[in-house]
């Protein structure tokens, strides 16, 4: 069982930045593809961004391209999400997830491919 713990959420104003972290005490997490999903009130959970296990590929949903950056530090068993130019529509609970699926490169947006999930961290962007 891989435990993922998100941190870094909070209340910010539109245009501000936040950096989320997803840490694990399990060193095997470095073998997993990692992603951030988010779920706004009353909406389905959606894929935000993902990064391959070795960090050579990353994917973003269109609404965050150019504003969000995913990165990972496998030596620290941590994945980051740098969020700049935040908008009110970015308000959601943000979850990190880990996948070992061989289909990840083509189906990274599919939540059922992910083996482990964190408990989430709340991000609220005021206008």
Folded structure, characterized:
- The chain has 127 residues and is mostly beta strands.
- Helix content is 3%, strand content 45%.
- The model has no long low-confidence stretch (mean pLDDT 97).
The gist of it:
3% of the residues lie in helices and 45% in strands. The chain is mainly beta and 127 residues long.
Observed structural traits:
single chain, globular, mainly beta
Q: Which spans have pLDDT < 50 for at least 5 consecutive residues?
A: none
On the 0 to 100 scale, the average pLDDT is 97
> What is the ordering of alpha helices and beta strands?
EEEEEEEEEHEE
What is the makeup of the main sheet? 7 strands, mixed
Please work out how many helical segments DSSP would assign.
1
What is the terminal separation in angstroms?
A: 39 Å
Helix content: under 10%
Rg result: 13 Å
Specify the structural class.
Answer: mainly beta
The proportion of strand residues reads: 35-45%
User: How many DSSP E strands?
Assistant: 11
Q: Give the overall silhouette.
A: globular
